[in-house]
Amino acid sequence: MCGIVGYVGKKRVVPVILEGLKRLEYRGYDSAGVAYLENNSLVKYRCEGKLANLEAMMDEAYLSPSHIGIGHTRWATHGAPTEDNAHPHSDSTGKLVIVHNGIIENYYSLREELKAKGHTFSSETDTEVLVHLIESFLEKDLVLAVRQALELVDGSYAIGVFWSEMPDTLVAARNQSPLVLGVHDEIGSFMASDIPALLPYTKRVVFLEDGDLAVITEKGNTVFSIHTGEQVERKETVIEWNAAMAEKAGFRHFMLKEIFEQPQAITNTVSGRINPETGEINIPEINLSGDELAAVKRIFLVACGTSWHAALVAKYWIEKWARVPVEVDIASEFRYRNLLVDENVLTIAISQSGETADTLAGIRLAKELGSKVLTICNVVGSTMTREADGTIYTHAGPEIGVASTKAFTSQLAALFLFALFLAERKNTVDAEKRIELAKALIDIGPTIEKELPVIQEQIASLIESFYDCRDFLFIGRGLNFPIALEGALKLKEISYIHAEGYAAGELKHGPIALIDKEMPILSLVPKDSVYQKVISNVEEIKARQGRIILIGSRGDTQLSTLTDDVIYLPVIAEEMNPILYTIPAQLLSYEIAARRGCDVDQPRNLAKSVTVE
Ligand code: F6R
After folding, report:
1. Is residue 402 within 8 Å of 602, Cβ to Cβ?
2. Is 2 a residue of the active site?
3. Which residue lies with its CA nearest to atom 8 of ligand 1?
4. Is the domain 3-246 a CATH 2.102.10.10 member?
5. CATH topology assigned to domain 254-449
6. Ligand 1, atom 13: nearest CA belongs to which residue?
7. Is 262 close to ligand 1, i.e. is its CB under 6 Å away?
8. What is the reported pTM?
9. What spacing in Å lies between the alpha carbon of 608 and ligand 1's midpoint?
10. Phi and psi of 351, rounded to 5°?
11. What pLDDT, in 10s, does the model give residues 436-493?
């Protein structure tokens, strides 16, 4: 979604802001803009499309001596991605300027009231309404005017504002949309919607909470409550990520780099949390006592998109090993149905960003209904981690490609850890089995490390035959059914090929009608407990002349009798197959999308962190 960067300090502001915005490009956007103060006048550049267009307009601005400014990448919600609708927006005097992420839900009525008072608007955006609303209260005190305006606003926002009459101060505020401040003792102060924008300058950050307003000067920041005006304490956090981690390191795309980072990401998720001798799991950040966990009668897993697929796999693991019934919900559905959630329920939100609006709303609702809430998350200090009772961090490092890869497999690793942890507390698995399962989890990272180049080579031979297909089906059973869904999502989001995932057994209940000699069907067929069943489904496809791709076990001679297009993987503990079988599905999608010339890291219309409903 949209990105915000603001800076006040000793450095020239334009390069700082453009560099920050570049590091937020991965979030997805369709127009961009920058505003800064020079000789006490506001200077503004805005344009449609990518940051490169903006940079091309700003050659001279790079050298501006200005030391205060804000920038924005916009993902259109209200109004098309045009220059007029791009942020920053200014008020009628041209002295006050704003960037905004989120949605002002009552913008229409506010705009009508402002129009009646003589304000005129040059864009279709809800944001321009907000800057005029602030103007309508502004006399001498910008902070007071921002607070008064925000009291009238319904909806979500992260904003950055400055006024040429207060040339040393940025004002930031947030409600349901992430905003983080960057702290540096020498060079000045920063604000951004997401951490990577700050990484070239500082690792010291302060996360704002809903209802916070920050006054930011070169010397630092002070945080107040929007509603009471009283000062509030927000503690500083030091981020472990560094700027190099958010760079491509010689790979063609971030997505490919992140696919290859999976062995390390998974190892980071599990390391220090398993005792290999006893199979015991140690996750102190879970913050739930043994008694609380033992009392859990039902679990709700709540997530969106790829994270929802991780939840679907986890249901198998938790029910099998901890013997607790699990319901899996898409967050946007969870929040609007009549939930049977109470204090006997544990709700687990799975989210790589920790900011997804629907998932966040889901955990707030679950808490209201008395449930304990745990989050599985990759971003330290994100909103969900602050609101949940406990967190299992995945420690996968920054994920820049919009399509989730390493965040997904490390979510799976964290969820398997949790299943074992709960099984231990519930006493549902004996020590011998626990050691065996823990070992399988420890081994999966190194196995993927070894197999990645082998898989890549096998995939390469398929691309020319399949890159220009119009449709694709992915099928799997049991633990691998969610991986079929994930494979289809990966392919469709980055290559724009229409793809669907199905439980293999469902094929004959409808989708089989699609099969003809044009339709590729990728089947996940490891030698596991449902192997024979999936093979029968593949036979049905063969009988109808479908184009079959199989991903199965090395040494399985039957596979080559069904098709020439087989990707072989090693035979490992069945429980770990969903993690291993994800890798070829990701690589196939990646190579097809790259062959089609798609913008793999920033697919059209998508955003990395979906902070609006
Ligand atoms: C797909 C993808 C999305 C996210 C979804 C939830 O590759 O990345 O489907 O999984 O938007 O995001 P998080 O996990 O941040 O809540």
Report:
1. yes
2. yes
3. 404
4. no
5. Rossmann fold (3.40.50)
6. 351
7. no
8. 0.81
9. 7
10. -160, 120
11. 999 999 999 999 999 999 999 999 999 999 999 999 999 999 999 999 999 999 999 9
